[in-house]
Amino acid sequence: MQENPISPARLMSEALDKIQLPTLSRPQIPPDAPATEELVAWGMAKFAYAQLAHMRTVLRGTLLLADAGIEPAAIVLCRHLYEWNMQTGYVYATFKAHLDANDLESAWKFFLRISGGNNWVKDHGTKYVPEFPATEVEGSIRIKHSVKAYKEHRTQEFGTENVDDEYSYLSERSHPNGFCLDPYLRIEFPNDVSFIEPRSQKQPGVLHACMLEWAMTHVNLLGLAREDAVRVSLVATLKEIARQNGQAQTVHSNS
User: Fold this and answer.
1) Which domain holds residue 226?
2) Is residue 180 assigned to a domain?
3) Is residue 72 a contact partner of residue 181, using CB atoms and an 8 Å limit?
4) pTM score over 0.85
5) Cα 135 to the chain's mean position, in Å?
6) Quick check: is 144 in a domain?
7) What one-character-per-residue DSSP string does 67-97 give?
């Protein structure tokens, strides 16, 4: 089954690849000085730009694998994108709560954690560099916090959520279990089984949905950072996807 030529994931990938990420200059504020609105905005923009660069790279790879019919590998990357989508919601909600409370110090500390958190370095760094100050390294954000925030977001926006269904499906297809092996088997009753190489260019619908949700949340995150250049490009992309999808729906209903 061929991918829909106007698929949101494809359009999103093409648009993200065209975005030029401008250089960000850190405000001239000493490291030990109290956090300011300008500094926090810089931190949010830095995180958002880096995350966009990562998302478009992984999305590009996901589509390349899907185009080649290597669906098992594409599914693993879909799960990675889904997790980043969930984390973006958690990051946006946390930053917004701190800013609404005018708690710039907490917002800045949160930025330091999401941008520099590294559990591997924290737990294993001194094994390779004994003098490394591992105790000063922030821990990574645990996925359970992102899942919880994403469920709350879905419930608020749509009145219901099925995050466990979607995430569990992607996880089962990514972990070593029988679900991963089923596509390679052809049962030939009554007693035989043959082994095949699965080839499918079909993409899971959750990929398109999660990329759209990520982009919309990313727009809001950039808004908190008072960033315009990249945010405008993302908004234009979302409008174009909506326009093309609307045209496709009209053609389908009239055919």
Assistant:
1) 8-21+35-171+201-248
2) no
3) no
4) yes
5) 28
6) yes
7) HTT-HHHHHHHHHHHHHHHHHHHHHHHHHHH
